[in-house]
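User: Sequence in, structure out. Go.
Assistant: Echoing your sequence, followed by the structure tokens.
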Amino acid sequence: MDWRSLMLLALFAWAWEARAAAPDPVTSVMWDYYHQRLLNGEAFVFDDRIRLEVPPFAEDARQVPIQIDASAYRGKVKRILAWAELNPIPRILDFAPGDHLEPSLAIRIRVEQATPIRAAVLTDDGVWHIGSARVEAAGGGCTAPSVVRAEAGWEERLGQVLGKRFVRGEDSRLRLQVSHPMDNGLVGGIPEFYIEEAELRDADGQVLGRIELFPAVSENPTLTFDLRDDRQAEVWLRDNNGNEFQAAF
């Protein structure tokens, strides 16, 4: 290896270290902990091209909308993780979009207090790109009594999926809501009971994307996916009690 190649490698290494050493945009004391716990200490960069949208203040801490858009890395995304750093149950989702899905989604979550929210996007070069935001909240969203369980007949509606496809040129958007209490185990006498797996499939059963959900997700969870075409889509879900639900769109 000649000196020019060595110099290029050194410049690349310096540029990478400079990017990784960029300051945390939300200045969280918990970042190092989650970097080790959820990302295994792997290479990362704080990246404003990962669009993470949250409301500035959670008017209802039990139903806080978040939207993740990693389309700047279209075709390169292997995995998307999201978590709320100061929640008692921080993990939100683990999403693996396939070739026919955009690397973007929207969902509603609970927050217990004001907290940084993170979206970590793993690209095919092995680097995590971190989108960051902060939501202010009065608190209590994770430990509030269930609204769903207070409704008469909620058991009969368990697993009911409502949704609609919206055409967007040659592509389409799928929005759906699932009737489920999503119990997180933090309310006395009620154990964890939540949807933990979901797959989006085409009419032939090909998996278009997989998502793992955690109890930080709100009751009657809503999900929004962006498809790169208008093919028929089916959603399959399973909760931690083994109940399976399915619907076609």
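User: And one key feature?
Assistant: The first helix runs from residue 3 to 20.
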